[in-house]
Amino acid sequence: MNNNLREAMNAAYVALDKRGKDILRLLKVSCSSRPLSCGYFAGHYWPVGKGGYQMDQFPIPVVTVEGLCDIEIDLEFTGITAKLSKQALMSLDHAMFNDIPYTVYGVMDFEKIFKGLGETPECLAERIQTSDETAFFYSFLFSADMSQEQILTMIKNLEQLKLYC
Q1: What dotted CATH number matches 3-161?
Q2: What is the pLDDT at residue 163?
Q3: Is the dihedral of CA 9, 11, 12, 14 positive or negative?
């Protein structure tokens, strides 16, 4: 293996691993009522260009807040993904997420995008109603350096909305 590639990968993973451990420590103190776990997972999708997504082969740290969400720690983003039933999704006030870029995609067919980045929430209603999906993933995208306060605020909002089904 090329030593330069190995050094670059290690440098990137040191930063990813630190962010994952920092988030896990924060949540152990702040979300002590929920089980937490952390692992490395490959096959995650991230936005590329306008409306496109690419699957990455390399693993990233993912912190799971059981029964609520996954926090995906990527090189350029931090994603927080929660699951919502079709019925709950139809009654959700999407305006509360206007300041946060997010996508909505299927649980059975996760490559089926119901709301892409940059699309308005209005596009969701018809797409959801005509879908065979019974649950959907909401994936909120934040910068890689999102603050601890942003993480805790998002967790609190997800708990209040009962976004996990």
Answers
A1: 3.30.930.10
A2: 62
A3: positive
